[in-house]
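USER:
Class, as today's exercise, take the chain set out below, and explain how the chain folds.
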Amino acid sequence: MVLTAATAANRWLPAAILFLVLAAIHTWSLATGPAHLSFLNDDEWLNAWAVAWIGHQIPRDPLHLFDANMFHPRRGALAYTEPLIVPGLMAAPIHWLGGSALLAHNVLVLAGLTLTALATYWLVRVWTGDWRAGLLSGALFAFSTPFITRIPHVQALHAYWLPLALVALQRLLTYGRARHAAWLGLCVIGAALTSGYLVVFLFFALAAAAVARAPAFLGREGIRLLVRLVAAAAATLVILLFLLRPYLDADNRRPPAAETPEITTALSSYLASAAHVHYRTWSGGFYHRAPGTLFPGCVALVLAGVALCRRRRAAPCGTRRLLLAVGGIGVLLSLGSHTPFYIWAYEAFPPLQGLRAVNRFGVLLVFATAALAGIGLSGCTWPAPARRRTLVTFILIALATVESFHGPFAYSRLDYAGSIHRLLGRSSWPGAVLELPIYGFREFHRNARYLLASTAHWRPLVNGFGGFAPPDFDETVQVARQFPSVPAVAWLQDIGVGYVVVHLDAFPDPMHALRSLIRLEGRRDLALEAVEGATRLYRVRPERARAIAALTPAPRWSQLRFVDDSTDGSMLRAAGGTRRAFGFQSPRRFIAYIEPTGLESFVALRLPVPMSGRFLDATTGAVLQGLAIPASEAADPPVRVIAPPGHHGVLLDLHARRGPD
């Protein structure tokens, strides 16, 4: 039996209330303090920032929505993380009314789980005509272990586009109208504006569903149906290419991966669960070695088995076949490069190339199992009044809730923006912000807290975090870590940084960092603006440090490459007798900074062309000595250059005699 939309909506309010209560239970105690409670998770902070950015930017400059305030000075920075545009629009009123980024994120956690359950409820009710089956399927899917273990990943909780798209597909197959094809396309667009993972999952789920329902596309009516579907797909593709062009420009591709060395380990994800009932009895071992947690639950498996074994049809013809195809494609793709199908799909479908955790495709099997469980419940016939059938349904939901309960969770109260960040919001001094320490490489995720704190001022931020990083971000990190050296500050001036926030307690050696900052007195390029505990705020002035002003010709820092003695192609091959040495270079210019210098301080250089120049005192800009250095062949040893001793820091400025820098 296929219901009309009006009939299907009859019990939506009670269903929504039930699912909201279940969302509060499964995320307990989040509902007791959504404005301040946090998992203290970097992904949570990243997503809270992204959602807040959308609410901030949409009313101000929607055409530059992707020019988010991270990875300054790069444009299109939002393309390095999940779009979260749909959740961001949902939460925008919270920001406009003065709510915090954390409050908006936590409301979206509850809303995502509730809406995903509600959409699944609608789909199964459309298929079966049984609201009880819909309630059970919604609870089984939205509150399963793949969702509850990923609460910090708010985009993963907003999976309602999958069941909504299948409702649209069912309408299209039943009525064959163009508006249902358009509805299907809108679901794909909505998924793409929510999560890069979700839209890829949805694409393959719809492809599998179309194959499973292939007989519907035969004959004259079937061809007409297919034409409408293809037209909707083409229009959807054009819209997505327009809306998500920054992702194409970012080129966020990863090599095909299996995530695990053995296929059996990948398959063990389907036996892994973090729910207390399973983890403490039999699933703990699978949980610790599997790449994901994808166990659908015993209630879901039993009733799905009933749906597959019973001959009585409780859903439209082909529905069970469709769900088997959706679940099967999810399992196949979750194995990654262990299967040739994934390799083929990776080459044929470019969005798949941006996914890191391919095991997450397994959520399609969890969805299929939950939907089949509802069909199984609807197909069970026994002589009982409606009230008793309702009681049985709620008993099953209660059992599923106990079975999938992961809480209560250990949230912590988080005040993520201090007085310094609020001062940055009030200050009229222009410029971007650099927060130190800045993290790259394996600690990239630790920049997330700076992103969340930036919601107090919305200035451009040199720091950044996401699923990817710009190709030049590691170099940015290396330069920023040289603060407060005069070349590093000159580089900050060139890229438009107006403030530097230094968190002394986050450095491995806070006292050493403090001593470096104390020496800044008298510098004309920096000024201490504020102190809050172990956090210090410095204003970057437009005046150049004396040593930088003495460099001739004036270097164009943005066109010079940062190098040290470990950088490929570096003219600086080694350094000794000093705490740190680094440089900036172009083919015909080399500037080195050496700190401090003693009797045995030196740098070893291999220059591509003869260069001449001078040593300058990094503090006063005074010329210390001139020198000329010959070019070195590949087989020659580097030229050893002795630095003038007895200085806190010196600059070595070399340039070729002819030609541009």
About this structure: The first helix runs from residue 5 to 8. Residues 5-32+82-403 form one domain.
